[in-house]
Automatic annotation (TrEMBL):
It comes from the Bacteria. Residues 4-166 form the N-acetyltransferase domain. This is Acetyltransferase (GNAT) family protein. The keyword Transferase applies.
Length: 194
């Protein structure tokens, strides 16, 4: 079974996502709309997305290898003809250190393989270092947008970058070449011992 799976968001997921939307770090690092909305209002919005909003927004549930809900991802700014979208995600606090990167990787894979997205736009607020350090964010950022978002009483700068199908293919080829190089060195070392 895969380490991380992606499934469509269901009504059963609404209470868990509502709790996450109200979590402090989520509020600071994504947006704080959930602080001013009632539970019923949040649930109604998620239900509308499930029932009739798939052409503009899709919600997904990220699950660990035992089926446990690890977090959520969602796509917006969907351009079906150009096969592009913007990806957002939020990992439950107890899973952030162990599952965060794998959740993002699984979401990207799902969008490429199941929805045939060629370009995925990532956006992270520059102070959000829950999964990437400030230096890593700077290295990834193709665009830095000052005053992008207003959360918790402050204007926030956002870092944007794209990941294309070619980017992923190139990364996989570099990883395979690196693994092959290590395997070759190990084989050469073992042969030298005999």
């Amino acid at each position: 079974m895969p380490f991380m799976t992606v499934r469509h968001f269901t009504e059963a997921d609404i209470p868990v996502r509502t709790e996450l939307l109200r979590e402090n770090k989520y509020q600071t690092n994504l947006n704080d709309f959930a602080m001013s909305a009632a539970d019923l209002e949040l649930a109604d919005g998620m239900r509308r997305t499930i029932e009739s909003g798939h052409h503009v927004k899709r919600l997904f549930t990220m699950c660990g290898s035992k089926g446990q809900v690890v977090g959520f991802s969602w796509i917006t700014s969907i351009d079906w003809r150009s096969q592009t979208c913007e990806l957002s995600f939020a990992v439950l606090p107890r899973y952030r250190s162990g599952f965060g990167f794998k959740a993002v990787e699984a979401a990207h894979e799902y969008l490429r393989e199941q929805l045939h997205m060629d370009v995925i736009i990532n956006q992270v607020l520059s102070h959000n270092t829950m999964m990437l350090s400030a230096a890593e964010l700077d290295a990834h950022a193709q665009i830095r947008a000052e005053y992008d978002s207003y959360t918790v009483g402050q204007w926030r700068t956002a870092c944007y970058w794209t990941v294309t199908r070619d980017d992923v293919r190139g990364r996989k080829q570099r990883e395979q070449a690196r693994r092959q190089e290590i395997a070759d060195r190990v084989r050469a070392g073992v042969q030298g011992l005999s």
